[in-house]
Amino acid sequence: MSLFRKKSISAIQEDMASNPEHASLKKVLTVKDLTFLGIAAVIGAGIFSTIGSAAYDGGPGVSLLFVITAITCGFSALCYAEFASRVPASGSAYTYAYTSFGELIAWIIGWSLILEYSIGNIMVAISWSSYFNNLLHGMGVHLPYWLTINYDSASEALAKVNEAIAAGSAVTPAMQEIINGMQNAPLVAGHKLFINMPAFVIVALITALAYIGIQESRKSANAMVIFKLLVIGFVIVMGVQYINTDNWSPFLPNEFTGVLKGVSAVFYAYIGFDAISTTAEECKDPQRDLPRGMIYSLLICTAIYIVIALVLTGMVHYSELKVDDPLAYVFDKLGLKWIGYIISVSAVIATTSVLLVFQLGQPRIWMTMSRDGLLPKKFSKVHPKFKTPSFATIVTGLIVAIPALFLPSSLVTDLTSIGTLFAFIIVCAGVLTLPKLKDNKQKFKMPYVNGKLIVPLMYIGFIFLFKDRFTEAFANFSNMTHEQLFFLIFALLAAVISILTFVKNFSLIPICGVLFCSYLMIEIPPVSWLWFSIWMAAGLLFYFTFSYKNSKLSHVNKQ
């Protein structure tokens, strides 16, 4: 069927060898650079903000969630590495899906990755603006309130102030700033104007850096990573001295269900490692270095997150950590505000590095989709001087910068996690379709572990561990919640996969990747699934009105 026409790996390799547009990108990245790019993307807003809300729900046991998420991403990373060693081309999961499942699935993955990169960066830009404004306040610099926040957030802040005043609270300077800010905001067409100008400016600057060149971006990312690793190391050394082990008891105050509430926040922090694969054509030796960069960055970041989670929950009681800046908060509470200031500087730099990596990733996916005819040709244009996908980089910047002016960051984290988990599932499943190599020249090969008996036994263990959820779901079968429905759908999917693994002797690692990512997806709220469905419907509409008839494979098949 033409909807599932595939690009063969050999055809991609021949195209890369013969087509000059593939050689037009600068090949400057080494294994160290790729590892640093992974750390730059993973150690960002997650460690400076969302780790607090995850710890609030899960208690000290949130460190287990980082382990679970790292294992899940580890399975996916090994599958990405297998593909990267065979298909050293830009495009990430989109390219891998094209070779495994065909064009329609590849398009769906490419479209969903926009959620991961472009739309996800809106939240990062808004987070950066918040850190930056806090930093300016600490230095005594105050930008006009209406230039630092969107209208929805400003309205919510004013409502909370009015509620506090009505309850008898005294007006603090921060509350007065909100009141004055709402009163002094300019009127445009009868409406108060609020825009997040710092978020817009930082995206514009990062886009300019990504446009100028990969070498400049690499140097900037490496410098930012070194700085934030030094700060995080300093925070850990200082924080360990103030740990009270009583705060670690109980370790799972809200049981394992509470730990899993932080899935979206924690997983969002991890997704950056897959951005490494988008730079394949700018690597000196992609088949060797891409797998190493992915795995090294994942291991380093996992260790950092686990230690930080234990230090935070050891310094203060987990119930105090539902704040926007948990790292700074715990040191401020101990009277060490100067450390909080250093953390604020590091948070600004950390989120800047995340913006940079994601602004590098999205244009390269679009460039690859454009080469295949699924997007207009302009998206594959490479700048003759800077050797970057220039048009795609500018469009990515506009898609992030303009919404960051006006939109609140709600929903974005969950939407980004859905898009990424979906891509991970396709990549892991795609590995199972790869043909066996006739030689052993491949520079990275994922180890084969027969899942014939292990996966069915894992499924039996899953039923035993979650027997209460099964009982509850079946007891409410006629009136079950969305969460219960999603759980039963996963259980059915896992049963089918277990049977297929037993029959076909599937490899354990990719099967675990599919199962773990699928389970994490059911923990995401239904409202986010609704918006994801709307997004995918829009993508399918574009595919059938433009991409299907303009696909290069369509023209090949007609010849």
UniProtKB/TrEMBL annotation:
InterPro entries recorded: AA/rel_permease1, CAT_C
Alphabetical keyword list: Membrane, Transmembrane, Transmembrane helix, Transport
Gene3D superfamilies: Amino acid/polyamine transporter I
Membrane spanning residue stretches: 34-56, 62-83, 104-128, 193-213, 225-244, 256-273, 294-318, 338-361, 391-409, 415-434, 446-465, 485-503, 508-524, 530-548
Membrane topology designation: Multi-pass membrane protein
Domain of life: Bacteria
Pfam families assigned: AA_permease_2 (PF13520), AA_permease_C (PF13906)
Principal localisation: membrane
Subcellular localization(s) per the UniProt record: Membrane
Domain named Cationic amino acid transporter C-terminal: residues: 508-551
PANTHER family: CATIONIC AMINO ACID TRANSPORTER 4, INNER MEMBRANE TRANSPORTER YGJI-RELATED
Name this protein carries in UniProt: Amino acid permease
Species this protein is from: Polluticaenibacter yanchengensis
